Amino acid sequence: MSTLTFPSLRATDPAVFGRVAVLLGGSSSEREVSLDSGRNVLEALQSRGVDAFAVDGIPALAKALAAGGVDRVFNILHGHNGGGEDGIVQGLMDAFGVPYTGSDVLGSALSMDKIRTKQVWLSLGLPTPQYRKVTAENVHANAAELGLPVVVKPANEGSSVGISRVTDDAGLDEAVALAARYDGQLLMEQMVVGDELTVAILGDVALPSIRIVPKGQWYDYNAKYIAEDTQYLCPGLDGADEEEIRRIALAAFRAAGCRGWGRVDVMRDRASGRFFLLEVNTAPGMTSHSLVPKAAAQAGIGFEELVWRVLEQTLEASHA
Fold it and tell me: Could you tell me which residues are beta bridge partners of residue 279?
């Protein structure tokens, strides 16, 4: 595997960042995870001397921006509908001309919509599972077309919220009912049986992949955020396979209009060895269980440096 090289730090003086609002919490389904991530980011910035303070949710950020005194924003707000990954808060910050971490309006909005992201990837020949838009009326017909097993999930949620893996026709209606609790369209895709992997992106570098091995059958919400027995193997692959998954992940990230930092989730089919792109996360978790810090550590970047490098990206050209 090739050695990863990172650019030198752009800044060593924390004063260059000015007043930094760490945007966390919010009102999405991922509020609790965002609060946890935000506390960690805030502590890391403050430990390096950055004048950082917490802002909980978009209305509070709007007030802070209107009052002045916010020089840049570290966005660690997860999800949509009150979260920070759907382009809405990015538009707000653009309107005030305040630089922020992560993807802009287009990259954020597109990545939050799994269906449209898949359409972009397929148009570019990037591998992703075949899919259908589903409703309660057409779920059985679509499952018959795709072939069981399938995955049913909301098209606009993250953190494994509302997802069902369905192996027989009898489970389809319940899966649709669960996914329909959340706003937006519903997505059904062919279930890839194999290894679950993820690749973190930092700037123009795809970090070492992580292969996720939950104690249970699936890497669900509990395995992500609560269980202590999930194994994370990093790098998840070796040799040419590791090079290929990182190449595909970086291509998928860029194709979705994303920038700065993020995480691309990938499945590897056990039978064929092929990779299939699942989704892009534009404001990934930064909790004790989170994957971006694990990949960064494998590449020799500790948590505080990782947070600093993400914030440094706001020193580039304005997001406007």
Answer: 265
Contact yes or no for 294/210 (Cβ under 8 A): yes
Is 274 catalytic? The answer is no
pLDDT beyond 90 at 156: no
Residue with the bigger pLDDT between 70 and 84: it is 70
- Dihedral-angle region of residue 134 (phi above 0 means left; psi in -120 to 50 means alpha; beta otherwise): beta
Catalytic residue among 36, 102, 285, 290: 285
Instruction: Please list, in sequence order, all residues whose beta carbon lies within 8 angstroms of the beta carbon of residue 107, skipping any fewer than 6 positions away.
Output: 256, 257, 258, 259, 282
Q: Give the residue-averaged pLDDT of 22-46.
A: 95
CA 205-31-87 angle, to 5 degrees, is 55
312 is catalytic: no
Q: Which two tokens stand for residue 313?
A: 């990206």
- 314 contacts: CB under 8 Å, gap ≥ 6: 17, 72, 73, 99, 100, 101
Q: Which of 26, 28, 29, 30 is catalytic?
A: 30
Helix H or strand E encompassing 153: strand 150-154
Residue 225 known to be catalytic: yes
> Residue 209: helix, strand or coil by DSSP?
coil
Q: What is the pLDDT of residue 79?
A: 84
